Amino acid sequence: MAKALVERATAAERHEALRAPRGRYLKEALIRGLFLACGLVAVLITVVTVWMFIQGSLPFFREVSLGEFLGSIRWAPLTVPQSYGTLALIADTLVIMGIALLVALPLGLLSAVYLSEYASERSRKLLKPVLEILAGIPTVVYGFFALRFVTPLLQQTILPELGFWNGLSAGIVMGFMILPLVASISEDVLYAVPRSLREGAYALGATKFEVIWRVVLPAGFSGIGAAFILAMSRAIGETMIVALAAGRTPAWPPDPTEPMMTLTTTIVNIATGDHEATAFIWSALFAIGLLLFVMTLALNVASYFIVKRYRERYE
């Protein structure tokens, strides 16, 4: 009897202790509502932006067919006859992006491997912030650096015939700009690979290089692939470097040693030109912006599916 009373009293006390204070659920509801509002605001901004692109580009596509817009190599909106083909612009954009990736991907991945596998904890804490400083440099500074340092350096060494404006120097400097993005994300991914996988490989007699090449990198493939695609998205949308260093003349076929004109540079030309806000050329700006949005969205969707397809789960 006494034991039952004690157990009943103990259960009542436990129930009283676990019972939430009167205002606790209200606070939780308010916080949940705040987070939901923030998420909805982000979605709303995205929807409004896309709607503005679509609405602004409708007058353009009423006059210019999608086939001409994507299939013609001639971009000449101010000459007679006018032409609004973006094929050369897309090709120039992809070539400069490719040069940037050739610089950023190997250097970024090797930096990530060193920081996660070879560097001491002290060195890692010192070197990673130093590497990420590159991400804080304004892109206009990168553009001026490409124009005044990289191009003269290439002209004085391996490419004496290189033009003052060219896609090569713009692509190289853009690669250094996106390098911290690749290195930082890849390093976080590799560092998160469970230690047990490494120790298991070492127990089987694998060398450090074999562990990195055959265990760590495959385990982090999904994150590394996502980092590469995000770097591509960043390179496609870059503006100031290509506007300053690559030139403003579409090149067909694309030649990195000659002036090139990307999609973002075209937007800069339209936005800074002497055109009235109601001019037809402004609808071309929205059309190019919509094209860039679609390209970036496609890369982000590809990144999502790569992560989903190749992600490793560890219990």
Low-confidence stretches: none
Question: What helical percentage do the residues reach?
Answer: over 70%
Please name the CATH topology.
Answer: MetI-like fold
Please identify, by name, the CATH architecture: Orthogonal Bundle
What percentage of the residues does DSSP assign to strands (E)?
under 5%
Please trace the helix and strand order, writing H or E for each element.
HHHEEHHHHHHHHHH
**In CATH, what is the homologous superfamily?**
MetI-like
- What is the residue-mean pLDDT, rounded to a whole number? 81
Strand order of the largest sheet: 1-2
Structure description:
- With 315 residues, the chain is an all-alpha fold.
- The chain has a single domain, classed as MetI-like (MetI-like fold), CATH 1.10.3720.
- Helices cover 74% and strands 1% of the residues.
- It has a two-stranded antiparallel sheet with strand order 1-2.
- α12 packs antiparallel against α13.
- The mean pLDDT is 81.
Tags for this entry?
2 strands; single chain; globular; mainly alpha; 315 residues; 1% strand; 13 helices; MetI-like fold; two-stranded antiparallel sheet
Topology:
Blueprint: H1 2-18, H2 24-63, H3 66-71, E1 75-76, E2 83-84, H4 87-118, H5 121-132, H6 139-156, H7 167-191, H8 195-203, H9 208-219, H10 221-236, H11 240-245, H12 263-271, H13 280-310
Helix pairs in contact: 2-13, 4-7, 4-10, 6-7, 7-10, 8-9, 10-13, 12-13
